[in-house]
Amino acid sequence: MTIRRKTKAVYASDRELERRKRMRNLKEDVAASWFLLPICAVFVVLYAVPLAQTLYYSLTDWDGLNLNPGWVGLENYAKIFSDASILEGLGFTIVYAVLTTLLVTVIAIPLAVQLNQRFLGRNFARSLFFFLSVPSLALMGMVWKLILSPLQSGMINTLLVNLGLDTVPWLSNSRLAQACVIFVGVWAQIGWHATLYLAYLQSIPSDLYEQARVDGANARQQFIHITLPQLTPGIVVSMFLLMSGGLKVYDLPFTLTGGGPGFATNTVSQAIIDRGIGQQQYGIASALSVLFTIAMCVVIFAQLGISSMIQRRFV
């Protein structure tokens, strides 16, 4: 009987300790939740409410002035898929986002590897590539507009004329204008992403390379089997930033080409602003914003899924 009483007392004591532990954890969770309230409030005010309003206006013919807009249902969405200018802008936006992401990644990784080596003026080279990426894309667009001007007064065309060659319609030809926007977008972002990769390279233990050299691995094998797998987290972050930024791009094409010639370099963001603010077709602009938000979410979640598989494969 004594042993049973002691056993029951131990069980009761354990249950009491467990209850107190649960209560303590609950109090900690409640205390921590108070710190989340400001963040939740900001999210609701700045994101959730505007998104709900955008969804509502996308189903109306609101012009920005009428206090009682008419209900049109899915008519605005149908107009989007029948508008050639919007579809052309969507196509260029996707091409820009994909190509800039791939080109910057392919160029920035070898550049970061070179900047990680020991050579004379290494710190100056690192600073140079980084500070070239500091100015905004809008400023880059205005500067490169002077360089790539299709007129004879353009910097490159002036050089071609002095060499006895014909001028090139850099920004007045649709294909050349698209290529120029993509080129400037890549040029403006390489330095920053190379610096990002450089930070990850410096965190790789040197012992891995020393052991690989002892085992007879050459530079190419070390890059493939050590550098790339260790850079996988950096590649995921870099490509996520490039893809999301490329899909939202507005400032560079607008300042470099104005979306032209025609609608060759028009983007989805520019189409939303032009339709909403420029033409006061807020219903169509809101519908395009909703579709663009959905497309962005799909692309980002797909990218996160692919990145997760890559990380499980190499890390």
Structure explained in plain terms:
The chain folds into two domains: 1-57; 77-314, MetI-like fold (Orthogonal Bundle). It starts with a helix and ends with a helix. The longest helix has 56 residues, at 2-57. α5 packs across α7 (174-201). 76% of the residues lie in helices and 0% in strands. The protein contains twelve helices and no strands. By secondary structure, it is an all-alpha fold. The model has no long low-confidence stretch (mean pLDDT 85). It holds the Pfam family BPD_transp_1. The chain crosses the membrane at residues 30-49, 94-115, 127-147, 176-201, 222-243, 284-306.
CATH architecture of the largest domain: Orthogonal Bundle
Strand residue content: under 5%
Structural class given helices, strands, pairing?
mainly alpha
Distance, first to last CA: 58 Å
The helix content is over 70%
What is the CATH superfamily classification of the largest domain?
MetI-like
Which stretches are low in confidence, meaning pLDDT under 50 for 5 or more residues running? Answer: none
- Main sheet: strands, sense, barrel: none
Listing every helix as H and every strand as E from the N terminus to the C terminus, the arrangement reads: HHHHHHHHHHHH
Compute the number of structural domains: 2
DSSP summary, beta strand count? 0
Question: In the CATH scheme, what's the topology name of the largest domain?
Answer: MetI-like fold
Mean pLDDT: 85
**What would CATH call the class of the largest domain?**
Mainly Alpha
Q: Give me the Rg, rounded.
A: 28 Å
What does the overall shape look like? flat
The total of helices stands at 12
